[in-house]
Amino acid sequence: MAKQNTNEQFKAAMALCRDIFQKKLYDYKPSWRMLRPSSLTDQLFIKAKRIRTLEVKGESLVGEGILPEFMALINYGIVGLIQLAKGYADQVDMTNDEAMALYDEYAQKCMELMLKKNHDYGEAWRDMRVSSYTDLILTKLERIKEIEDKNGATIVSEGIDSNYMDIINYSVFGVIKLTPSQP
After folding, report:
1. Is the CB of residue 138 less than 8 Å from the CB of residue 48?
2. Which of 3, 40, 154, 170 has its CA 20 to 30 A from that of 148?
3. What is the per-residue burial (b if ≥16 Cβ within 10 Å, else e) of 142-151?
């Protein structure tokens, strides 16, 4: 029962993010295609750092809360996976429909990974604090920076793509816990 609940919650969280992604594509097209890996990592860092600052300070002067930032981490994480696979471009080189198809492909891969890890970890995420997701995401970003600085070379560590997928999945857990209709 809990597994099905997690599946449905994951899908609902991803649907919220997908809707925003699609609307932003309408507004901007896939302009993110021009982001180089280090710039994308820094964008993810900005979002995660803002979440941590809001968690520590307890107030937002801009008026946006933590939930939209977790959603942005999901969407930028998927952009990161697309950029890893396609490389960056000097101009927009894909249609909105192509971008959405890639979004759906990587969202599905993240869900499949979540299901495997959720099985092995016994839904431990449910007992974690949202602030722990933030700290784990910041740790993953620091690891990505190190891997980027070493031009992708690792000895035993997971690659950038695995770290992006973990960031996405921790962010989905954050969205689930911060969405009022979710238990």
Report:
1. yes
2. 170
3. ebbeebeeee
- Answer for the pair 67, 143: CB distance below 8 angstroms, yes or no: no
Q: Which residues contact 121 (CB under 8 A, 6 or more apart)?
A: none
Q: Which two tokens stand for residue 43?
A: 């964008």
DSSP for residue 92: -
Each residue of 19-47: b (16+ CB within 10 Å) or e?
eebeebbeeeebebbebebeebbebbbeb
Amino acid at 109: K
Q: How far apart are CA 141 and CA 135, in angstroms?
A: 10
Query: 105, 165 in Cβ contact below 8 A?
Result: no
Tokens representing residue 84 in the block = 């890893």
The H-assigned helical ranges of 29-95 are 37-57, 66-86
Its pTM surpasses 0.90: yes
